[in-house]
């Protein structure tokens, strides 16, 4: 019986090859053992420990819980800061504690900022564990890993009050367009800005860029139009990097009238052009940085299971239109933007809800859950958390984000919403496409 089974197995083409390879491995292990037997045990154990340490060091970013620590680090730091603050306020009255905590939250709010000019920057480098070692560049899967950390930083830099109130930013979808690979060991930035929003979704654009080293100008033989550089196939990619870089605090608020979102249509057109032309094109940022990838994320503001309109969350953080010229005196102009010392008109309504004695963070949380639904279109009253009437003066968030911001929101929404609509159509027609 055994001989018959052996004959059957040897008749299978793959079995002899497996036996041969196993025999070769056994010979290799035996030869390795003979060589190691001549080396002191302590010596090769030290060598093995060194190799194990180097492997762990190279893959430190991919070790268990390393991703969680990197992504949730802003939350950990913020929670610790507020815990220490609460500890220092133990011997103060309840009203005083609530007031100080609310003011501390407001100190981090982007009061007066234009939502389309607010940019959050997350910096990383293309490490070995994030790289495609065959192509020697950042792996496509690592773009999503970096974006996870970058998105959470948006929550705590652009929406600090929302985060403290217990709200979350739920991710609905992300769409990537890869333009150019990021080389191994290169330092890159993920620049996140708000593109647009509707009654449920906020669309966020992430741009993966690298800043060319040195101050080398673009070489002769290149052409530059509409923010992109066209290179002959044999021309190296040398880009001028004399322009400034984003602020170190992680946010960028341009002062010029031409902002990142002003160039949204042009950037999308340039990116699409790169896939239609045989020549190699470099898509550049306004500061001269090289664009490698664009990702559009579709996000939703959630208080528990309740979805909150993005406009309510944005205005509650202080985002607003810039001041307009005084009609009574055309020669006098207001500052270019509102500031914490000169807040926008709707900020008084936010403080009534969130800051003692008229409000609190609990009232603010209740307002985000249900209170905004009770606010009338015109001046009126909304019911607070304890049943009291709050004079909110109508839907103040629409006034804060109206005018030029509303016009830009609509224009940008026509561009980014096509991604969601297109994917929904594909999902609905999937079975017909199969046929």
Which structural class is indicated by helix and strand composition? Answer: alpha+beta
Order of helices and strands: HHHHHEEEHHEEEEEEHEEEHHHEEHHH
Label the overall shape. Answer: globular
- Tally the beta strands: 14
First CA to last CA: what distance? 52 Å
CATH topology call of the domain at 113-308: Thiol Ester Dehydrase, Chain A
Q: From the 3D coordinates, which CATH architecture of the domain at 113-308 would you assign?
A: Roll
State the major sheet: 7 strands, antiparallel
Could you tell me the strand content as a percent range?
Answer: 15-25%
Low-confidence stretches: 215-258, 325-329, 380-392
How much is the radius of gyration in Å? 29 Å
CATH H-level superfamily of the domain at 113-308 = Hotdog Thioesterase
- What is the quaternary state of this protein? single chain
The CATH class designation of the domain at 113-308 is Alpha Beta
Which range best describes the helical content: under 10%, 10-25%, 25-40%, 40-55%, 55-70% or over 70%? 40-55%
Q: Count every helix, treating DSSP H or I runs of 4 or more residues as helices.
A: 14
Question: On the 0-100 scale, what is the average pLDDT?
Answer: 78
